[in-house]
Every structure is written in structure tokens, then in C-alpha cells.
Amino acid sequence: MFDIKEIRSQFPILNQQVNGKPLIYLDNAASSQKPISVLETWQKYYEEINANVHRGIHTLSQLATEEMENSRKKVQHFINAKHDYEVIFTRGTTEGINLIAYSLGNSNFIKKDDEIIISYLEHHSNIVPWQMLCERTGAKLKVIPIDENGILQLDFLDQNLSEKTKIVSVNQVSNALGVINPIEEIIAKVRKLSSALMVVDGAQSVPHFEIDVQKLDCDFFVFSGHKMYAPMGVGILYGKEEILEKMQPFHGGGEMIATCSFDKTTYAGLPFKFEAGTPNVGGNIALGAAVNFMKKVGVQNIRNHENTLLEYAQKKLLEIDGLKIYGEKAKRAGVVSFNLEGVGIASDVGMILDKLGIAVRTGHHCTQPIMDFFNVAGTVRASFAVFNTLEEIDALAEGVKKAQRMLM
Ligand code: PMP
Q: Locate the Aminotransferase class V domain: which residues (predicted)?
């Protein structure tokens, strides 16, 4: 049974007023709120266990190591990775993509005139690391175009995939539009027409979908904890064992070595080769609690509830004259991105909503190419999580109407 009251009672932050109004938090694509189970796991770690991992002989260090490695296993099962050592703790999606780009560039994997394909729908963190890699190596960046509904034009792949293509990196869900990309179809084309490595940015899909990296057959899958009810500063890079084995480390330092001398250092095995330095132990353990939370509610239940909210939000918002929603409406997850005709600045709408206690994001959402495509400086973005309600959508629609009256 999906009991929204019970779910909301697990999120203490919701129980407050902002600007004299009950908080309505609709900025989950930027970062979701955290349930008590995650907060308590994090606090319990610092109150009862806190010690550095992987080095200590003493009891607390061993406990901390055990808990963190348990959390790695929880994530492994959550995304159905074959091995726990294919699951690497990072600071988030951004670090995961930078790790891949840096490390592949260091492995002589990519040369001048090789090609990297991304899409028009990418977050800056799935654009800039590849541009930096291209600058370092002389490789070329190619971009899958979109149509006016934000749908990727996949015939571009038929025309552009070749043996020159070394990497294809695409998100599963667009953070700016919420559009769900046909990632299975993209991977099938990549496999058929090239030997490129396939990177999936799952930052906006993991909070909403069941993920099976083996079934997807991607080479890498990256995501952030903080968008799926875990603390900030933790994330995951999944990579296939045989590829991770061949890659050079990203950061050098403690924990990632097998032996170290001034003459030569040898590297630790997976996953530690990619986890230099003291990790965010409390955060990594709390990520496991977030996985437990999602599994307990049921990922499919979360998805169904958010879909109900999304459909209702689109219906209510489209009743407002002059409101334009960006992106395909039928295939989206968790996000509705819009502007009001005649209101040039999305942040004006956001500020009025904030006065009503409603938190939305406004601006370019770290996706300036999409904004350029639609010829706008930014949009208003409402994004949903498991704790949002239909009444909150009503309040959003009323708030947008009020903003329209005030700004026009
Ligand atoms: N990719 C997508 C699709 C995102 O939505 C985000 C966060 N907005 C990122 C990458 C970057 O995530 P982080 O800032 O957590 O590293």
C-alpha cells in the first residue's frame, strides 16, 4: 500500500513553513530531500562508529569498513552489477564522468581524430569533461541533435557511428526537460555500428526507475546519491570489470596503491584503484540506507506516484493561458519545465513562487545548449519526488497564475 501521509512523515524537512507558508518542495531534480532512515544512518555512523576505513586493525575501523562495503553491495544489487568491485564510490555524477574521461585519455585509448558522441540534452557535466578530453587529444566531439519536442534524432547515430567513435555518452533522463531517452535503442546502435564504449548518465533516472546495468549492457553508468534521497557528496560510478581493469587511476594517493616506493608504485585492485584518499564514509553508508528506503517503498511505486503527479501537473499547468511546456509530454520522468508567454525572466516566476513557500528551480539548469535551442535564457522547472502530492500541484498551478497576474 502506498500511503503518502506515512511517506511524508519520514521527511522531517517538509514539516516547516517558508515565508509563512507550508513548504512545497518541487526542486528534487536538483537535490531530493532525505528520509529519517538516511539521516539516522548518517548520524549513527558519526555517533557510534566514526573511524577511517580499510586501514585499521581496531574495532571501529573494521566496523566502518564493513558498513561501507555492505553499502557497496546494496548499490550493486540495486543496479544489478555483476560484482561489488565494479561499483566505485565517487562524489557524484560529475566526478564519475570526469574520472572516465580523464582515465580513458590517459590510457592511450583515444587519439587525434577519434570521435566522442554526446547528445544535445546533456548536463554540462556530460559535455565539459569530453570537451576537455578532446582538447587534450585532438579528438572530435559530435552531438546527437533534437527535434522541437526534445527528442533525440537517432538517425544521426546511423550516419555517424563508425570505428572512429570511441565513446558515446548520453543521459537516460534529461534534467532540464525530463524527457526519457531511448537508451536501450541507443546502446543497440552503438554496439551494432561501432566498438565505442557506452557511458550512461543516470543522475535523473536512478531516482525514478529500476536500473539493471547488465540488461542495459552499458560500459559505464554514473549517478549521484543526493538526487535519490542520500546525502550530498556521494555518488557511484559503475563500470564493467574488464574495462575498469585496463584503465589508469584518476587520483593518486593513499588507499589506491598496492605498493609504493620512490622508484615505482603499483596500484591496488578494483574498486580501490579508483578510490584514492579518505572517502566520505558516513555518506557512502547513508547511500545504502537511501537504497533501502527506495526498495522498501518500491521503485515501481515511486515511479507510478510520480507519473500521476506529472500527468496532473501537465494538465493543470496547460490550463494556464500562454504557458508553454518544453519537451515531449508523453515520455518523461519527474520533471516539468515551462515558461509563461510574455514573462521574459523565469526567475521572476520562481521568486513569486518562493514567497508562496514553493521551491522550484529557474534558469538554464546547467544545460545551456538546450536553452539556446529553444531560444530562451531559462525555464521554470518543477520536479517531483515520492513525497509530493496532488494538492501541492494545485498550489503550484495557483502560484503560477498569481505570478502571471503580477508580472504581466
Ligand atoms: N547529469 C545530470 C542529468 C544531472 O541532472 C546532474 C545534476 N543536476 C548531473 C549530471 C551532475 O550531478 P552532480 O552535480 O550531482 O555531480
A: 24-396
